[in-house]
Write a structure and sequence with these properties.
This protein folds into 5 domains: about 210 residues, P-loop containing nucleotide triphosphate hydrolases (Rossmann fold), CATH 3.40.50; about 55 residues, no CATH class; about 140 residues, ATP-grasp fold, A domain (Dna Ligase, domain 1), CATH 3.30.1490; about 190 residues, D-amino Acid Aminotransferase, Chain A, domain 1 (2-Layer Sandwich), CATH 3.30.470.20; about 180 residues. The mean pLDDT is about 90. Helix content is about 35%, strand content about 25%. The chain has a 9-stranded mixed β-sheet. A 9-stranded mixed β-sheet has the order 29-33-32-31-30-35-36-28-34. With about 850 residues, it is α+β, with helices and mostly antiparallel strands. It comes from Variimorphobacter saccharofermentans. One of its GO terms (molecular function) is kinase activity. InterPro entries: ATP_grasp_subdomain_1, PPDK_AMP/ATP-bd.
């Protein structure tokens, strides 16, 4: 060891005891008071100034300053209240900027409990920061208060730091007891030492040592600060209402989040007991995330505002919540915090996402978290569960994050060890989905890329029952309190709508290829969207998603196979005879055949209270939110047609206002316009200029190979980039965003996000059909991006669709994509300056000319 690699504590005698400090050392002082820590810092700083070292003071606590302002000391004020990630990242970046061989003094780490309320996160900060300080050959002083932290926090700090020193002040005498001094040893190093001036006198006598330690109040190592807070709050349940409300609000800041519209709604409906009940079902610490909050709040609104009217129809929940702090703990304790910090920079945002995603899929969890996982799984037994993302920003006013993060079903079959491993991997998959391309783009496009996005997790028992070897609910879907997709002027927008499926709700939130969900107007559920009667079978649901006990996976099956099972309910609630198909079969000469059925839910609508309850529930939630809402639900039925609804999720419906009435111009002739129809649009009343129309030819698109269809999607993405800040309309056959190219162009939403208007048109000849995607994740993206949406049912009554209006204009494809002339027959880009689209939501008229 070179003499110049040694650093002084400012106490010559103690330097001899520990053989000096070394570059790279992190020094942690366990103290009883801040003033004791200040004394040790004073010795260190005075010597550093004498040696002309670079001195940096990291100020974040509310306690008295450790160091006074001085031209010899650079002070950084860091706001710990912004959360762990912002705090740790800012400190990481300043350490990087200051470079090698700087000297640091940090405020007392115990004060971080005031902001994060968690020993776990205090320990995580130390573990994330100290290795970087060590790597840059710095010397850093930290303090923690004695008897304030858990055994595991102290153990984590001891494991990470180079020096851990107990500092005692007894009867005006100062004692230092080294507990850890890394890579140094002497026969007397770990005895307590009495500091007298610059001397450090070793206390080796058993009599003196026992007398010293006997006088020290070692106290009890506490529970995690988080648990202490909530345990103390339980004692307030017998206090006055005002006292309980004060405590409740404080706890909500720790569990729910900061001031927001959602926070104040929760404050209005939750009691102190409610908050404590939520905390009792939390694994780890920290926020429970937006999806969990939305689900709990909606249930509470129904309970309080609905009185007893909904009680018989609501299935209870027994969910668990994996706190957001576990996400950061997982990253820090697996040694990935440096990579996380690099990914959070503007230049590293996309560059390092793939590497971090891969690591997130293969980490290990702390032992105490593993034990809590085990206990939760023991509670659920072999009941199927679903592990759902519940990030801090999810399902809030302004940001739905619909479909951006993963949800994973655990069928929960096998040995306890197999079930545990499947659950752990499901949690990893949800964590890794924070680095999905769609999620990254969504956060970037909405200005959220640099904000904390901790991932909490909602663990729910899957709603449904076992039918043979399968498990599923009878019905599931999404519901909206406002029906903005109206295709008939008699539809009551305020009655709401459902997007309904048989089986698991995955088909309701996704655009499932080859299948169509049932769109239900709650004012008249028997009304069907625009289609011919004979098309009802074709454009309905033919497969269902379910959980397979034998395969231990989520699967899909043909309806015919499942409807042959005993369903523990009247099947006629869900299916009706398909008389149109029956008549055709008789015309073809078939005589002895089984009458086909149609999955139309007709008797469900007419012979149960389901529609009434859903309509009233949506109205109740919307009134409480003072905003349209979007829910996810399941429902299960009995032989007597009674049922239970499981409310899985509720969030504000991200939609623009309805706008004022727009006057629709009169048409002289159909050739004067591009298209016109009654209803079948979303986006309110608008008058928008259209500078460019990008039209995909159904006939030419269908001729392409599957590979070329994907190439069309890629080219649409490039055109989308070129259309940023322009008023462009994208018009294509069938479903935008389909994963089956034969049903529509298989774009990702980020490849069409700059369009002002999105049109899907039907083509009977080519077999394309728009899907009324209202309520799906695709729909959420459209509405959040304020894209006006139109479904054009070509050939149907009151529908004009005049593609010649576009095709007669010069095709500008090669102006935008010079190397793609081979696609000119498929993609036509027209300059339509002067064209406008008009819609009036009151009269339900739409015109583009």
């Amino acid at each position: 060891m070179n003499l110049y690699d040694k650093v002084s504590t400012g106490l010559e005698g103690f330097d001899q005891v520990i053989d000096h400090l070394r570059f790279g050392d992190n020094v942690v002082w366990q103290v009883d008071s801040i003033s004791d820590y200040k004394k040790m810092v004073h010795y260190f700083v005075e010597n550093a100034i004498t040696e002309n070292m670079s001195l940096i003071y990291i100020r974040f606590a509310n306690h008295e300053p450790i160091l006074n302002a001085s031209q010899d000391i650079k002070t950084y004020h860091i706001d710990a209240s912004k959360g762990f990630e912002s705090f740790a990242t800012e400190i990481h970046n300043l350490i990087k900027a200051e470079g090698k061989r700087a000297f640091y003094v940090f405020d007392c780490l115990t004060d971080l409990l005031e902001y994060w309320h968690s020993d776990l996160m205090t320990g995580n900060f130390f573990k994330a920061t100290c290795p970087y300080l060590y790597e840059l050959d710095t010397v850093a002083y930290f303090a923690i208060k004695r008897n304030f932290h858990t055994y595991s926090t102290i153990a984590g700090i001891r494991e990470t730091t180079q020096l851990l020193l107990d500092l005692y002040q007894i009867n005006d005498k100062t004692y230092i007891h080294p507990l850890k001094v890394w890579q140094r040893y002497s026969p007397t190093m770990f005895f307590p030492h009495f500091i007298q001036g610059q001397e450090a006198i070793c206390i080796t006598s058993s009599s003196d040592a026992s007398e010293l330690f006997h006088s020290i109040n070692r106290g009890e190592i506490r529970l995690d600060y988080w648990n202490t807070i909530f345990n103390e709050a339980k004692r307030m349940l017998s206090s006055t209402y005002n006292q309980q409300e004060e405590v409740k609000t404080r706890l909500m800041y720790k569990l729910i989040g900061s001031d927001s519209r959602m926070f104040h709604l929760c404050d209005r409906y939750f009691t102190l007991k409610d908050i404590l009940d939520i905390a009792s079902r939390e694994i780890g610490t920290g926020f429970i995330g937006g999806k969990s909050v939305g689900m709990l709040l909606a249930r509470k609104i129904i309970e309080i505002d609905g009185g007893d009217s909904f009680t018989p129809y609501i299935e209870p929940h027994d969910s668990f919540f994996i706190g957001a702090d576990v996400f950061y703990t997982y990253i820090v304790q697996n040694g990935w915090w440096r990579l996380r910090a690099k990914q959070k920079t503007p230049e590293g945002y996309y560059k390092y996402a793939g590497e971090l995603k891969e690591k997130l899929l293969h980490g290990s969890f702390p032992k105490d978290i593993q034990e809590q996982f085990v206990q939760m799984l023991e509670y659920f037994g072999q009941s199927p569960i679903i592990i759902r993302s519940s990030s801090l920003q999810e399902d809030n006013f302004g940001n739905a994050f619909a479909g951006k993060y993963e949800s994973v079903f655990c069928v929960n079959q096998g040995t306890p060890q197999e079930r545990y491993e499947a659950f752990e991997q499901a949690v990893r998959i949800v964590y890794a989905s924070t680095m999905n391309e769609d999620a990254l783009n969504y956060r970037m496009n909405r200005g959220l890329a640099q904000q904390d996005e901790q991932m909490a997790i909602l663990v729910q028992r899957v709603s449904g029952d076992r039918f043979g070897d399968y498990f599923f609910p009878h019905i599931a879907g999404v519901g909206n309190s406002s029906n903005l997709y109206v295709w008939d002027e008699s539809i009551d927008m305020n009655a709401g709508m459902l997007r309904l499926v048989f089986g698991l709700g995955t088909r309701a939130v996704d655009r499932t290829d080859g299948d169509y969900v049932r769109v239900v107007c709650l004012d008249n559920p028997l009304r069907i969207p625009p289609m011919d009667y004979e098309d009802q079978k074709k454009f309905s649901q033919h497969r269902l998603d379910l959980l397979s006990f034998t395969e231990n996976i989520q699967d899909s099956k043909e309806l015919d196979e499942i409807l042959s099972l005993p369903l523990k309910a009247d099947k006629k609630l869900f299916i009706s005879p398909d008389y149109a198909t029956e008549a055709r079969m008789r015309e073809l000469g078939y005589m002895n055949f089984k009458i086909p059925y149609l999955l139309d839910f007709k008797k469900l609508f007419t012979e149960t209270k389901f529609v009434t309850i859903m309509r009233e529930m949506l109205a109740l939630l919307s009134k409480a939110y003072d905003y349209p809402v979007d829910i996810e639900f399941t429902a299960n039925f009995n032989k007597d047609n009674s049922f239970k609804i499981n409310l899985l999720q509720c969030r504000p419906l991200q939609t623009k206002g309805l706008g004022k009435t727009v006057k629709i111009p009169e048409l002289k002739g159909e050739k004067d316009c591009f298209f016109g129809c009654k209803g079948s649009f979303m986006g309110g009343s608008v008058r928008l200029p259209i500078d460019y129309v990008i039209l995909i030819s159904a006939k030419e698109y269908l001729k392409l190979s599957e590979q070329d269809k994907y190439e069309v999607a890629r080219q649409i993405g490039l055109i989308n980039n070129a259309m940023k800040d322009k008023y462009a309309m994208l018009v294509g056959p069938g479903r935008w965003g389909s994963t089956t190219p034969s049903l529509g162009v298989p774009v990702h939403f980020t490849q069409i996000c700059n369009m002002k208007v999105l049109c899907e048109y039907s083509s009977k000849k080519e077999g394309f059909m728009p899907e009324l995607s209202y309520g799906s994740h695709f729909f959420q993206d459209i509405v959040e991006s304020e894209i006006f949406y139109v479904a054009i049912f070509d050939g149907y009554q009151d529908v004009i669709f005049n593609t010649d209006r576009i095709l007669q204009e010069e095709n500008l494809l090669t102006d935008f994509l010079p190397e793609n002339a081979q696609l000119k027959e498929v993609i036509h880009i027209a300059n339509t300056s002067g064209m406008q689209i008009y819609s009036d939501i009151v009269s339900q008229k739409l015109l583009c000319r």
